[in-house]
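quick one, 316 residues, struct below
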Amino acid sequence: MKQLFLKKNPELFQGQKYLETNKSYFEGWYFKQTNAKVGISFIPGIHINQKEKKAFIQVITNDASYFVDYPIEKFEFGSDPFYVKIDDNFFSQHSLHIDIRDEHQKLVIYGDIIYDHAVNISTSFLRPNIMGPFSYIPFMECNHAILCMKNRVNGVLEINHKRIGFNQGVGYIEKDWGYSFPKSYIWCQGNHFSCSDASFMMSIADIPFLLFHFRGIICVLIVDDQEYRFTTYHGVQLKKYEVSEQGLDIILKKGRYSMEVKTDYQYSFELMAPVKGEMVKNIFESISSSITITLRKGKRIVFSDTSVNAGVEVVS
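---
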């Protein structure tokens, strides 16, 4: 019953049983917030392997990234309501309190963020998160959940004495857990569209499964309360897949609908990702790129718009 409860509530900490072991495991939440000009993302999490158990907070801005280590004893979590706390830093689906002071990296971040007006994907018993029925497979290398496609952001952060204000900004929350990130994948996310109130996320990854691999696709666009989902478990077809240093050009097809996704890849910075519970994989993410989405039903254009302040990762 407890495992079923956790599956239905993916925001909750899933890895309590690993805290007393040395089995490879990681779990991390991703909180992104942007205003009209700049953005910042926080990734609180833990990683466990035979060598060590650590908590961490990763930070990515428009012009830098940081990895801050903490003893695992500084990690706390709650379920009712959900929260994660690492040292003096507090994360929930409704607010953040940030107090990071790292002398080695000459990093000081302090401030508070409030979230409201949350919009998220539809869920059901068979689809407790964006992975759909794959959510119930116990041996997946990496699990992924969208916790909030879009919310309203208000608050102020000070980063090395530079003030960033969020007045009616926009946010996004997701998470990953398992033992390793995929060997190769692309990920992009945007909810700062110029002519609409849309929100978008897409990931295409190499997924190991039993004795073979498959290309897993999760993609969702929400426009005016209408959700368009393109996923492996919905029989999506990958019609175009072009990856270059400049960006992505992807076309997905499901039934009569097709979606073209083009990104302009800008200003990426290094983050760390887990391999068998150890944070040793270098990946690069931009949160200042752009994404252009064109959704068609047959030949008719249903939606077309461009998001700035978009997140893009390409790992090959």
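The mean pLDDT is 95.
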